[in-house]
Specification:
alpha+beta; Outer Surface Protein A, domain 3; three-stranded antiparallel beta sheet; 4 helices
């Protein structure tokens, strides 16, 4: 029987959820856009009058840089290495990227797959 190998977050590949659309705002920062409800019927019936049937989550500069590199091919390690200059080589930036990726996964905006 094979033992389960412990997974390292930096080796996993983030993939954007199918229900998420990524848009660029007027300020050139990214937004995650998704329906308020999973069902189109519920979106029509339960969305308050005057409200958009979509939720827009505006990302700040670093979050936009991370999400921009999520393409289903790069690992979390590759993304962190690509952003070294963007973060100005600040100490612990790799951990900051990993925590942000984990938050995106926990909230259902991305999934993580094994290479």
């Amino acid at each position: 029987m094979a033992k389960n190998k412990a997974l390292n977050l930096f080796d996993l590949i983030p993939v954007v959820s199918e229900r998420i659309r990524i848009e660029t705002g007027e300020d050139r920062l990214l937004q995650l856009v998704f329906p308020r409800f999973r069902s189109a019927w519920m979106n029509r019936r339960l969305t308050p009058r005057g409200k958009s049937p979509y939720i827009h989550i505006k990302l700040e500069e670093h979050g936009s840089a991370v999400v921009q590199l999520i393409d289903g091919q790069r690992s979390v390690r590759d993304i962190a290495l690509a952003l070294a200059e963007h973060f100005g080589q600040e100490p612990g930036y790799e951990q900051r990227v990993a925590v942000f990726i984990e938050h995106l996964r926990r909230d259902g905006y991305i999934s993580l797959k094994q290479p």
